């Protein structure tokens, strides 16, 4: 499947606990190798409407896309630990076929990066979460870490299945 790396500001540094000694959730990274072109993976992720297929259980709506991707916005709703969670997202940095930085705002704020790197005959897609304000509550950090770990693995597996099944995405 994919690889997971919990980070503490240093890429690929393994740590055992996603919630550090300070009670803050640590940044975390998940990635997967996909037999598809970088362009097809990037194009899929740059349209938040595709998140509805990649993240069942999360409803994405009110999507406003921009030509270069910067400023693309959306709203989402899901349930975490039995609570309804609503929020917004905005792509604040876009490097075509390389990276999308997505700022999210919900009861707990943070951001995440999507990265796309050629690998062999395909692409490595990486998601990295960065904690933000209010993530310092230990129980919230633990709930989010557990939720994001499962979600990231599922999202990357669905993206892989979608792109590898699409003949037009093959190199």
Explained architecture:
The chain has helices at residues 38-45, 51-54, 138-165; strands at residues 3-6, 28-34, 59-64, 73-80, 83-95, 99-105, 110-119, 122-131. With 171 residues, it is of the alpha+beta class. It has an eight-stranded antiparallel β-sheet, with helices on one face. The longest helix is centred in the C-terminal third of the chain and has 28 residues, at 138-165. The chain is globular.
Fraction of residues in H or I helices: 10-25%
The major pleated sheet works out as: 8 strands, antiparallel
Radius of gyration: 16 Å
| Shape, per Cα inertia axes | globular
Structural class: alpha+beta
The beta-strand count equals 8
Strand content: 35-45%
User: Given the structure, what is the number of helices?
Assistant: 3
**Low-pLDDT runs:** 1-24
Task: Chart the SSEs and their pairings.
Blueprint: E1 3-6, E2 28-34, H1 38-45, H2 51-54, E3 59-64, E4 73-80, E5 83-95, E6 99-105, E7 110-119, E8 122-131, H3 138-165
Antiparallel strand pairs: 1-2, 2-8, 3-4, 4-5, 5-6, 6-7, 7-8
Concise summary:
The chain contains 3 helices and 8 strands, in the order ββααββββββα. It has helices spanning 38-45, 51-54, 138-165; strands at 3-6, 28-34, 59-64, 73-80, 83-95, 99-105, 110-119, 122-131.
Give me some keywords for this one:
171 residues; 3 helices; 8 strands; globular; disordered N terminus
């Amino acid at each position: 499947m994919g690889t997971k790396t919990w980070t503490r500001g240093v890429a690929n540094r393994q740590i055992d606990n996603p919630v550090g000694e300070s009670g803050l959730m640590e940044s975390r990274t998940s990635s997967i190798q996909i037999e598809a072109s970088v362009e097809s993976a990037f194009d899929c992720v740059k349209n938040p409407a595709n998140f509805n297929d990649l993240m069942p259980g999360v409803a994405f709506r009110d999507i406003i896309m921009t030509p270069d991707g910067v400023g693309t916005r959306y709203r989402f709703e899901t349930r975490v630990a039995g609570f309804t969670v609503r929020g917004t997202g905005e792509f604040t940095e876009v490097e075509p076929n390389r990276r999308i930085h997505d700022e999210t705002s919900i009861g707990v704020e943070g951001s995440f990066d999507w990265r796309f790197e050629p690998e062999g005959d395909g692409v490595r897609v990486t998601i990295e979460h960065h904690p933000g304000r209010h993530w310092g509550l230990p129980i919230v950090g633990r709930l989010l870490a557990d939720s994001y770990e499962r979600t990231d693995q599922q999202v990357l597996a669905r993206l892989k299945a979608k792109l590898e099944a699409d003949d037009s995405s093959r190199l």
